[in-house]
Amino acid sequence: MDNKIKKVLILGGGPSKIGSETELDAAAFQMMTALKKNGVQVLVIDNNPFSLTLSEVQPANVFIKEINLKNVLDVIKKESPDAIIPIAGGLRAIHVTQELLNQGILSDLGVRVLGISKESLKVINNPDKMKIAINSIDEPAVPSKIVRSDSEAFEVVREIGFPVNIKKVNHKESTERIICNNAEELSDMLEEEFEDDSVCIIEKSIVGYKQIETVAVRDQTNTKILISGLENIDAVGVHSGDSIVISPVQTLGDIEYQSLRTATFKMMDLLNIVGLCHIQFALDPNDGSNYYITKINPMINSSSALAARSTGYPLVYVCTNLLLGNSLPEIQLHANYHRLTPIMEPTLDHVVIKMPVWPFDNVPEANQHLNTTMKSVGSTIGVGRTVEEAMLKALRSSQFSPRDVLPSMYEISSDELISQLIHPKSDRLLVLIEALRRGYQVDELEELTKINQFYFYKLKELLDVEELIIKEPMKLSTIEVAHDHGFGDGMMAETWHQPIEKVRELYHAAGEYPTYKAIEPSAGEFDQNIRSFYSSYEIENESSQESEKTALVIGRGGNKLGPNTAADYYTAEMLIQLHRIGYKTIVMNNNPNALSLSPQISDKQYIEPIQLGAILNIIELEKPVRVFIPGNRHFLLKQLKKYTDLNVQVLPPDQETGVVLPKDVTYALNFFVTQDESYFISTEKLISNNKSDLDYVTAYETPYVLDNEALQRDIEESKSHIQSSNWIGLVQILFNQNKKGESEYVGIRPLRLTETIFLSRATGINWVRALVRFYTKRLDINELMKNMPDMSNRVTHMQATFPFKQLNVKVDHANSSQEVGAKIKFRLVDDK
């Protein structure tokens, strides 16, 4: 280890957006943990209110500011860190780091950059420099050339062949690429492009090529290992973030795969990468040995998060140790891991499939066709022993169906079906299944979709099992086959019009129960005690009851628009606080980017569809004394409450209150309510972007200034309404102020999840911790309220962020269901 590194500044990822949800904060949190274990002081700068890293670092070392050149430089000058780490902060952090280096500021201040080399910084998001770098090591980049005339264009085409993409070199115009399949199309396009003396880029079109990704690590001694290969089921033409992804790679031969591994290592050597690197390839579907390197990402992203989740390899922990100067053989892992884990390339005895989740239910104005612009806001994964099992689990997880059924596309017309096969939309997989149901041949579908035949045969096998379920109801043999292929108990119960208990009783009577397998990187070769599991119906069970005092926390699943990013933070905080008061903690989730699945946060993780049957299976094994359900899972709550022996708690409190809320609001009073007393916390301004409509409140500010007389009057009125409501926990009283400045009470509700976190940032009190302790009867309310700060001198403002720009849509008035993240800032009362 480099003993000169005593203090490190981590650049955070900022508000969540399309392309980065909670994986950046999860990585920053894991980095912080690893740095502390190495005796390094950690500083963090971020303006994401839903960052767990901000909560777990000492307040004096937290800087809640936007990631920009000025703010980062201010922190560096004030705190004098030995190094900065930008690779958990996305492209914004990388750009700030580039600017600091280009201006010579870091060298002047003696601050190092860890995790990304100068060589890497030169090629990130610079296609020309990346192409030169790739070609310098005799690896292939996509051929392209700038042309200024028809003759130059046709000369380039004679070299690279059709089809080609053509685009103008003019940043003020659209960057859209137009594909030309023959000389006639190219001639027509050039006539239009060159009429105003434009300069164009002619680029070989690789639409239809197979997309493969690799994730690898390298230390300063040039030792390298490949962590994972990821295969996109969709071909080039669909953004990799919108594609179904599978690991391990299924449709490449060993020679082809090894050539990509070698290319990955050569690229890491060239760019002098110490830490991790993610590389994307495009492979000719007719000749896998013919490939191009299309992207190089020497930083943490959703693909590296998926690689870590798929393999069980402690990627961020290992990477952080590499940044500190340790070599791979020197890294000491937790005792749960085998000592050779850091230097052994992972081998999988399971299959992981990632299924994207899209925002179109909340933003119907967006173009739902999948193309080279990423549109998904999250994803889910399925883990199984076979491709079929993993595929169906991932699909079940992505549908958010409380009854564990899959929607059908049987109403789609034949013309629309063909159109969607060629021009895919977000229900891509369901359309493929419907085409197979209608008798389309596999070779036809491969031609229309550019998806390898292998996957259609797997889908056909699932359809065969579905037919068996329909034809052979309530038979043990049917249930056994269905379980092996990833079908849930709820699916069978719905198909057979039976209560789920009847289905479960049938196979339980035969002594059959699910078993659980560990997600670990040696495929059972080493004796390891890694605590991440998926279900199987094989004989050997690798999981057992964690303890007699276990709390099971159900996560939200794949990230959607609305409060889901905040909900993942909330889930992680619950796990941490439950552990601190003496519970063994188990989380159930299926989001590969989830902060709450970080191994440091809970004692055990289950990656399963969040549906009734799967939850009951885990409860049967673990026998938790408490089960926590997210507030938006109303169906699950109703079903689980039928099992009277379960101690089920909803956190945050259920928003399905039955109370009609007002249309217009101006401000609110927040209270912590016990069975005996109501404790006033703060006033809060509710800022709507559509008049004062509550549905369009997407910004919050505290305090909302009232004179003492008005405040005391509102507090007394609030307490009377709280007393008649019988609600406990965090409660919000809503007021509206008319044009004359007169205020009136208009409603009461549990404090929303996002506002609970906002209140934590504003007061410096962890209100999730308070709620957990309150509902487990561990809270000293008087001690809590004694620590309430004076907030009269500081204003805290939180503003929701939205995905409209990335989705290329204009929305006049955004509502809270369309939020993708949030940003927070503070100012003194006297500041403008």
From TrEMBL:
Keywords from the named record: ATP-binding, Ligase, Nucleotide-binding
ATP-grasp domain ranges (all copies): 131-324
Superkingdom of source: Bacteria
Coiled coil segments of this chain: none
Pfam families in alphabetical order: CPSase_L_D1, CPSase_L_D2, CPSase_L_D3
Keyword ATP-binding: yes
InterPro entries in the record: ATP-grasp, CPAse_ATP-bd, CPSase_lsu_oligo, CPSase_preATP-grasp
Family, per entry: Belongs to the CarB family.
Protein name: ATP-grasp domain-containing protein
Organism: Apilactobacillus waqarii
